[in-house]
Amino acid sequence: MPADRCPTGVGPLDQLLGGGLETDGLTELYGEGGSGKTLVCLEAATRLALADRWVCYIDTEGVSVDRLEAIAHGHVEQVLQRLLLATPKSLAEQTSAVSAACSLARDGKRPVGLIVLDSATFYYRLTLSSDEEDAGRQALGRELAELVATAIASHLPVLFTNQVWRNQRTGDLEPLGGSFVNHAAKTVVRIDRLGGARRRAVLVKHRSLGEASAEFRITSTGLS
Ligand code: ATP
Ligand code: MG
C-alpha cells in the first residue's frame, strides 16, 4: 500500500482508489439515499479508531450507535473512545465543527488520522432557492477550503459525502454544489445502487487513475 493512502477497510473501494483514501486532500463520495455513503464513512472511521488514531467525525444525519456496533464487531467502546463526534444542527454549527476539527488536526496534540464530514451538503441543500442560497454556498465553500488546507498541512485524508439531484435534461443524478464542490475534492467517487444489496463505486475523478469501478455488497455488519 502506498504511504500516502489510508485504507477504508472496504476492500473493493480501497483497490479502486489505489490503496485507500489519499492523504493531503479531500475525497468526495456522492450517491442517492441508501447508496452506502454513511456506511463507508463508518467503516473508515472504525478502521482508523481501532488502529488507535483519532477521528474527527462531523455527522449531520444522526448516525446511530447501533450501526457503529454492527460495524465495529464488539469493539464499539474502543471505537467511541477515539471518535471526536460533532452533530451540528445548522450550517453555521457545521462551519464551527469543521473549524474545530481542523484546529484539532493541526495542533497535533492528538494523532488525528481522518476527518469525516457526512453529509457536507445536508444543511446547504436547505438554503437552495431561498434568500440564504448565496450565503450557504459561501459558507460551504469556506468549509471545504479550510479542509483542503488542513489536509495538506497535516497530511490527512478528509472524507466527505454529498447528496444528489436529478438533472431533468440528462436524466442523470448529479452531486449538489456543482463544480465548486467537485473542485475542492482531489478524488470523487459515485456510488450507484445496482438492486438489492449490490452497489457499484465509480471513480469519477482522480489525479492519476482513470475511470474505473468496483462492486461491493451491503451486509448486516457493514460492507463486503
Ligand atoms: P443517505 O444519503 O440517506 O445518507 P447513504 O448513502 O448514507 O444514504 P447509508 O445510510 O450508508 O446510505 O445506507 C446504506 C444501506 O444501509 C441502506 O440501503 C440500508 O440497507 C442500510 N441502512 C440504512 N440505515 C440503516 C440503519 N439505521 N440501520 C441499519 N441499516 C441501515
Ligand atoms: Mg448517509
Any chance you could write out the topology, listing elements then pairs?
Elements (H helix, E strand, L loop, with lengths): L4 E2 L4 H6 L4 E2 L2 E7 L5 H14 L3 E6 L5 H8 L3 H7 E4 L4 H17 L4 E7 L3 H6 L5 H22 L2 E6 L1 E3 L6 E3 L2 H7 L2 E9 L2 E8 L7 E7 L2 E2 L1
Parallel strand pairs: 3-7, 3-10, 4-5, 4-6, 6-7
Antiparallel strand pairs: 1-2, 8-9, 10-11, 11-12, 12-13
The protein binds adenosine-5'-triphosphate and magnesium ion.
Contiguous helical run count: 8
Largest sheet, strands/sense/barrel: 9 strands, mixed
The radius of gyration computed from the alpha-carbon positions, rounded to a whole number of angstroms, is 16 Å
Strand proportion, as a percent range, falls in 25-35%
Q: State the strand order across the main sheet.
A: 5-4-6-7-3-10-11-12-13
- Give the low-confidence spans: none
Shape: globular
Please, how many domains?
A: 1
CATH architecture: 3-Layer(aba) Sandwich
N- to C-terminal distance = 19 Å
Q: Regarding CATH, which class?
A: Alpha Beta
Helix content: 25-40%
Instruction: Say how many strands there are.
Output: 13
CATH topology term: Rossmann fold
